Amino acid sequence: MIHMTAKLSKNVRSNAITYGIVLVFYAVVQILLATGNLSSLMRGLLVPLCMYAILAVSLNLTVGILGELSLGHAGFMCVGAFASAFFSKYMAETGMPAGIRFVAAILIGALMAGIFGILIGIPVLRLKGDYLAIVTLAFGEIIKNVMNVLFIGKDSDGLHFSMNSAVDLHLKEGGTVIVNGPQGITGTPNQSTFTIGIILLLITLFIVLNLIQSRDGRAIMAIRDNRIAAESVGINITKYKLMAFSISAALAGVAGVLYAHNLSTLIAQPKNFGYNMSIMILVYVVLGGIGNIRGSMIAAVILTLLPELLRGLNDYRMLIYAIVLIVMMIVNWNPTCKAFREKYSFRNIKARMKTAKEVR
User: Fold this and answer.
1) Of 63, 181, 232, 295, which residue has the fewest beta carbons closer than 10 angstroms?
2) CA 330 to CA 314: how far, in whole Å?
3) Phi, psi for 10 (deg, rounded to 5)
4) Distance CA 320, CA 327 (A)
5) Taking a C-beta distance cutoff of 8 angstroms, is the pair 117, 249 a contact?
6) What is the pLDDT of residues 235-268, one digit of tens each?
């Protein structure tokens, strides 16, 4: 009982530190904004910082906690982005208050991405390792390409769909094209703010951290550690894999909502919803530490800010960026560095001081 209480208090303290880091970062940024010490370039990065942090935390749930390699996270982000942008554009003329419409768009983006996570997860999670990575990568590319050939319009008769061109929608006079194929969705309300991004990041952390520390989370980690042993004690493998995968997908959809409502035009391009985006999110997870939620969030912020902070060193910034990646990888994964960090961590130093005091 005492052991469980100590472990619970340790988890609560760790969670409080994670939330505290986010709140301190928010307070510092607000002070910089109020004093005018933040450039327009950095102000434009505030919402993307929150978005990338949410993506890194949510992918770590699949890669670090579930132990499955997924390369389709950008696809779930794409689903959330387009579903929410479509809803916002469709409801723009209905008189629904902007705040309620945006909250509904967030819920719809998360719901649609979660549904796709379940639909993809049912067949895909039977695969393992490289096979799973390849299939999820294919899903992300399929979603992006479908968005580029999808045309949706509305008129007095309702919604019209086409996979050829906007002309084939045959809209009546006064009808509007909402999704215009490769031109995407234009005119989405610009409602994403840094404050909303921080709130969504805190909600994401709350969901993921509480899931990890719950009974379900322990079952998911048991599957990661030893699938056969977990199944032998009655853990439903399919259920818990789908749970982790769908929650991860839904949170990626939330990041997609932030992205869609931070732009005037939403287009499904390789640079924002393609393979490179999925790999970049995976880099955040690996460098921050697989299974380390706080680390992946911090890595996402640092690696998003770094290229912009080094923009003055235009000829060398990508070289410095690559060196930082290598150094972070060595520090996080080299056995000697890990042993050094563990030896000189605050917890171990405190324990040694307590032991020395007891001896005296």
Assistant:
1) 232
2) 25
3) -65, -45
4) 10
5) yes
6) 888 888 899 999 999 999 999 999 999 988 888 8
Question: For residue range 192-201, what is the model confidence (pLDDT) as tens digits?
Answer: 899 999 999 9
CB 88, CB 261: distance < 8 Å: yes
H or E element that contains 136: helix 129-149
Rounded CA gap, 242 and 239, in Å?
5
Residues in the chain: 360
Closest C-alpha among 201, 70, 81, 181 to residue 129: 70
> Residues 340, 341, 342, 345: what is their CA dihedral angle, to the nearest 10 degrees?
120
Are 328 and 337 in contact by the 8 Å Cβ rule? The answer is no
Backbone angles phi, psi at 274, to 5 degrees: -100, -165
User: Is the pLDDT at 324 greater than 80, yes or no?
Assistant: no
CATH topology of domain 12-309: ABC transporter involved in vitamin B12 uptake, BtuC (1.10.3470)
Rg (CA), the chain: 22
Backbone angles phi, psi at 177, to 5 degrees: -90, 125
Counts of helices then strands in the chain (DSSP H, E): 16, 5
Query: Does residue 187 surpass a pLDDT of 80?
Result: yes
Pair of tokens at residue 123: 């067949």
Do residues 190 and 261 touch, judged by C-beta distance below 8 A? yes
> Is residue 165 predicted with pLDDT exceeding 90?
no
Check: CB of residue 114 under 8 Å from CB of residue 246: yes
Measured CA to CA, the distance from residue 49 to residue 67 in angstroms comes to: 25
Q: Taking Cα atoms as reference points, which of 236, 194, 222 lies closest to residue 43?
A: 194
Tokens of 107: 């819920």
Beta-bridge partners for 151: 162, 180
Residue at 130: amino acid letter = D
**DSSP-assigned beta bridge partners for residue 46:** none
